[in-house]
Prior knowledge:
- InterPro entries: 4pyrrol_synth_GluAld_NH2Trfase, Aminotrans_3, Aminotrans_3_PPA_site, PyrdxlP-dep_Trfase, PyrdxlP-dep_Trfase_major, PyrdxlP-dep_Trfase_small.
- It comes from uncultured Nocardioides sp.
- It holds the Pfam family Aminotran_3.
- Homodimer.
- Keywords: Cytoplasm, Isomerase, Porphyrin biosynthesis, Pyridoxal phosphate.
- Mean pLDDT is 95; it is low at 157-166.
- The protein has helices spanning 7-19, 74-84, 95-107, 119-134, 174-177, 188-198, 223-233, 259-262, 288-291, 310-322, 325-349, 374-378, 382-394, 415-438; strands at 41-45, 48-51, 56-59, 112-116, 138-142, 180-183, 202-208, 237-242, 268-271, 282-286, 354-358, 361-365, 397-398.
- Helix 11 runs parallel beside helix 14 (415-438).
- The chain is of the alpha/beta class.
- Strands 4-10-9-8-7-5-6 form a 7-stranded mixed sheet, sandwiched between helices. It has a 4-stranded mixed sheet with strand order 1-2-3-13.
- The chain folds into 2 domains: 7-60 and 324-438, Aspartate Aminotransferase, domain 1 (Alpha-Beta Complex), CATH 3.90.1150.10; 74-322, Type I PLP-dependent aspartate aminotransferase-like (Major domain) (Aspartate Aminotransferase, domain 2, 3-Layer(aba) Sandwich), CATH 3.40.640.
- A hairpin with a 4-residue loop joins strand 2 and strand 3.
- It contains 14 helices and 13 strands.
- The structure holds pyridoxal-5'-phosphate.
- Pyridoxal-5'-phosphate binds at residues 118-120, 123, 146-148, 208, 213, 241, 243-244, 272, 282.
Amino acid sequence: MPTETTDASAALFERARAVTPGGVNSPVRAFKAVGGTPRFIRSAQGAWLTDVDGNEYVDLICSWGPMLMGHAHPDVQAAIAGAIVRGTSYGTPTEPEVELAEEIVARTPVDMVRFVSSGTEATMSAIRLARGFTGRDLVVKFAGCYHGHVDSLLASSGSGLATLSVPGTPGVPEASASQTIVLPYNDRTAVADAFRMHGSRIACLITEAVPGNMGVVPPAPGFNSFLQTTCRQHGALFISDEVMTGFRATAQGGWGLDGAVEGWVPDLMTFGKVMGGGFPAAAFGGRADVMSQLAPDGGIYQAGTLSGNPVATTAGLATLRLATDDVYARLDEVSAQLRTEVTDTLDVVGVPHVIQTAGTMFSVFFREGGVRDFETAQDQNTEVYAAFFRAMLARGVYLPPSAFESWFVSAAHDDRAISQVVEALPAAAVAALTTLEAS
Ligand SMILES: *Cc1c(COP(=O)(O)O)cnc(C)c1O
């Protein structure tokens, strides 16, 4: 293994810090939770990232989900190149938007979609729509679920059952946070109590289809169905946030793991990441009677200069068309292989851990016993994860730089990429053990 140098990344990070807060445009990229120099990536191909110092890494974040087909897939590249020569934005309706909308409607239970440019915008717009539709203000969310940096959705720590929460970050007005009820995930009693107390004022409940932003925490069997029924009983809308899981966890997203089997449908859904094919594109969609309340047909306003951008929608469409059942079967295989290798290697050295899975997504928690909510997710040894992360990185494997994230694989993760991960694991397991024993 060549000695890894990070001089060029370090120099860029220093320049970046002078002109951008923390040197990054999204906080987790700064490596604060794991230590070390954030790697500035110069290029990517298939399952591999190359940084500005020339180091190569097997990529296990895939741009935090979007790169389902791997980086620089030739068919996606060709579609993008074809779109770019026709111009990059017109501010008019275009054909690729219609095609991508039809593709999403065909693959998911939504009747209609509207495009936006980020997952944050998708959840923000879905909530406005739910409030406009119901004429109510309160939003219910779960601690540990992330729905983008929307004011009312950043509240993550409520003081318990059916209590109106305080802001989770400076800058969120009290008035905004006080419209949000934050509940513990997987807790039916908390949900039932909140609806019993405030049901007539609740516009919607929003949840990740399978939470992936506190690490992967699957819903208990029947939990999402229970949420949907509870919302319906109280005249609130059930919003399933599939920005991460959509077209990723399974061919039918997180919904493919329960709703598709049990026979229920969320009122609204949000999508992003994979459907943008690596470009800023996201969407919200759902029941036709709700969606048609949006302007220009209805009175609820929502708009965007670059919404449905022709290059972004072309990239998304090319990606979804490549994402066949065979691709998802391959992703399942790669994901299962990696989970087995990780758990076997950690078992050999005796590092307690638990791996949780949602379709092709999974994450590794350094703790004993399963994680069912944010409280148990926080009860893990993040120092051990940091040591494990750094050892993997030094051996050419780029894991999520936080213990509270999912690992993502792509259709381009071949035997060579998997071998590089497998070869890195024993030393990383020892690094984890050393940190564990010192803590
Ligand atoms: C990533 C994510 C978002 C936010 O999407 P952005 O494009 O980063 O604004 C919202 N919800 C979930 C579940 C996500 O994983």
